[in-house]
Amino acid sequence: MATKSFVLKVWRQDGPDSPGTVEDLTEYAKDVNEHASFLEMLDLINERLMADGKRPIEFDSDCREGICGQCGCVVNGQAHGSQRGTTVCQLHMRSFEDGQTIVVEPFRATAFPVIKDLVVDRSAFDKIQQAGGYVSVPTGPKPDANSFKIGKEVSDRAFDAAACIGCGACVAACPNASASLFTGAKITQFALMPQGAPERKRRVSRMVETMDDLGFGHCSNIGECEAACPKEISLESIAIMKREYLKAMLAGS
Amino acid sequence: MLPLKKALTSSLGKKYLMAASGIALVGFLVTHLAANLLLYLPEGELYNGYAKALHDWGPLLIVAELGLGGLFLFHAAVATGLHMKTAAARQKGYLEGQRSKGGNSRFGFPANKMIWSGGILFAFLVLHIIHFRFGPGIAEGYEAMVNGESARDLHRLVAEEFRKAHIALPYAAVMLFLGAHLRHGFWSWLQSLGAMAPKYDKIIYSLGLLVALAFALGFLGIPFWYLLDVPGMLK
Amino acid sequence: MSIVLDSGEPAGPLADKWDAFKDQMKLVSPANKRKHTILVVGTGLAGASAAATLAELGYHVKAFCIQDSPRRAHSIAAQGGINSTKNYPYDGDSVYRLFYDTIKGGDYRSRESNVHRLAQLSANIIDQCVAQGVPFAREYGGELATRSFGGAQVSRTFYAKGQTGQQLLLGAYGALNRQIDAGRVEMFERREMLDLVKVDGKARGIITRDLVTGKLEKHAGHAVLLCTGGYGRVYFLSTNAFNSNGTAAWRCHKRGALFANPCYVQIHPTCIPASGDYQSKLTLMSESLRNDGRVWVPKKHEDAEAIRNGSKTAKDIEPQDRDYYLETKYPSFGNLVPRDVASRNAKTVCDDGRGVNITGRAVFLDFETAIERDGEDAIRDRYGNLFHMYEKITGDNPYKVPMKIYPATHYTMGGLWVDYSLMTNIPGLFALGEANFSDHGANRLGASALMQGLADGYFVIPHTLGNYLATHKPAAIDESHPEFETVQQEVQDDIDSFLESHQSGSTTVIDVYRRLGQVMYDRVGMARTADGLRSAIADIRKLREEFENDVKVPQNTDFNKYLEVAFRARDFLEMAELLARDALEREESAGGHFREEHQTEDGEARRNDDDFAYVAAWEWKGDGEEHELHKEQLVFENVKLVQRSYK
Question: Residue A188 is part of which domain span?
């Protein structure tokens, strides 16, 4: 089976307050099976580092099938690497050339402080969701599920927005480090569905306020978030968020 | 629920303000360009007539100019505020720069560097006003007759100034930044107001290119027109 | 003290038991609820729904997850759907029918009362989730769409494209977030539970490790809810997430909680096979693929060998040289036989040396016939996203070359023993969702895992927990109780001595762990024999020894992924032996547990209802001691036990 070797440079940072630096790990990046995923390549590098008594590269991952959103790093200046609609755990080494230079670094945003190496703290995303990314219903007897009639097209659009995995690639890819796509996706899901209607103004006001307070940049409509999104969530989500916010603003008190 | 002041000082609200002031400024640019097209005529009568008509507004003109200036300042000030926060949102950039992943991304100079193109336009504007608005007038001999009345000969001033390469070329260059600014701004203002939908996206974005080209070339042509002496005034 | 396994279910007719329980249960007054702290470990479907619901009721909830956010829990990866008896298609579904299918699908090794309750609650789940704004698939008329799943005769599976688990989890995550925002849930991310604190025999708290700083923390509560998922990663390679583990459950087991039916493991037939020793996980492909794909391997060993070494491709094998073994062996069900049957047969042909990928452990899933019959567009319409995912992972285009698939560990039916209230034999310690053993018997039906997680969290525990608190009235204690310091110190000493004894070694955690997985797949997997199990136990012990003596672990005590994995692997090395032991003890074949000695002449699983219709609940007797087996006899009053047949 074909193997490849790479010129590998990885961001190493001991902790949030350490300066961090790029480490050349080329000597550990030889003879990598080309069918390994990018994270499996890092696993292999780590085995070799540990055999050498060196500290392994810390990186986040969980499901390794592109749905949990825990993994994510910037590969050669692109969040999750060069392939569209892909998380870094689904990126495979066969998409790299033998001998290619690979620079790996964490998602960069003030709101995502680095914890260690490639691991960043994305709890800001949870805080945005806590501010309103839900329909406020308690558990208990509910109207029959079919009492909400939602057309297939609308339902599919809501699903597409709801498919966000919260990985943070949109923030990493946005030149402004804006969280608008992430926030807009959840607002869009509920803006399209009748269940979300009663608290739509409160939801958008609170989520936007939280997003701003957490230190994300503003949206200047570049659209790189959409390009980097592994679930290819549309920029329309941001337009809908802006529409919802405008409505909330104009509705007054 | 969502007080107006709070809404308009949020990142979204500020973008509404940017969009609204931006489109108003485009409105001004339309009149400015329409008037400037008169500069392509070898005779200055119509252009000077337009200038005189404006001048004859008297105090009203001052009010209009102040209003316009205020709009520019407002647009620039809000942009600066947004930019400061954004600069803080990513303090450390990527090691070897960032590369776009393509698709519908507008990643590139016009979209990423609105603050630069805007800043250059702002600096230009100051010089531009000093240059022409407060430049030499009737007292300095730039006098023309419009409908039998004495008027400032702005047409001659422009023509003379743009025959100087060190003035014409920078002017032309700045207009490229104007084009870049409009190239993104024209699409962006609709998106910022939440007025975009994917099905109009391509049309509006293409239209933005046309608008940007129209303004950039319309303005940019004038210095070259005189630098290359197309009207043949020197012959 | 001998342990009596009492399910604690109310008497009376099956269909009335849950109502009877609710009518008789004791309640905690609203004012008292907030004085009760509930510790919820894990934030998947079961944990998030339980934490949100309990907080809404007024309890003070502390929730813990090992990931960086509760939204990452592995429930998120469930693809297919969620069963419910709504009977919208009007095709004859009912609570009893879902109950019956689940009992039968589990090969009559689950408790009737629990399963019936699950079927009853399944309709509430859909209503609840729709009210939360979960975007289920819908028809053009605006009503919910359903599909038939996993060979069910009724269309009772609700879905959201291939991401049903994600949408349901995000619904529960939203509900949890609302409570966090309201200050009623304290959320602790990147925390791993490393021990249970018992006071006066009751579960009263946990010790967690902050995975960022490495510091241990004490958390006291009036009850502990384990919602920590299954132990499928004991096989190393599985469809489970990288961080999925059995440590919290295992540590509770070592504190006295019985571990039930560990040998019941579901090995899912349609997964992308491992292709090398770099592999870290296996990806599930929806089993709907078997509706149109035909499973085969070459008839001749030399052809298989040629495919493995690349000198031939699938296309070079003539039709008469292909062995469509499922179609031949099971003429009426063909490629649609249940999961366990499909998995076992794949193993058999690969053991025979006819596997088709580089490792020799893969079979073809071929769409050529379907594409010829229906056209590529029709196939794309049905499976486009799955084909895309397959191509992304393997680099092969399944429209042109057959897919390669192989079974992978997917779900563990076994887990901590719980009674009707979902409480383990330790008072105050509850287990919900995949972490318990209760509802799926020896085999889980497709689209039933999501159903169980949410039923447990939204609808069962709010009642049963209240009943426990009102009945047992656990005294108010906090972390200053000396027992917390004692247990924390034990955990700290364990970590310190572990690090000290693993400063050097010739191998790594992953290496030993991977070899454990190999032993488990080979001998404690789809088909088991007494000899194989005995040799597996011997090998597991050797691996455990090697792990203790020869593994090098990075020494830093702060964020250290390999230290986390080391602890989990160490627990799996213990758990693996119990799994093999349970499989050895169970001298029958049932569901996911297939003993080659116990099969019909047709090669089908043969149960032994006379001797083994019980829940095997194992008690930890201390390091180096043999587990003790306790039995809960299963009583079937509402269904007749029959042998499965798919011929």
Answer: 122-250
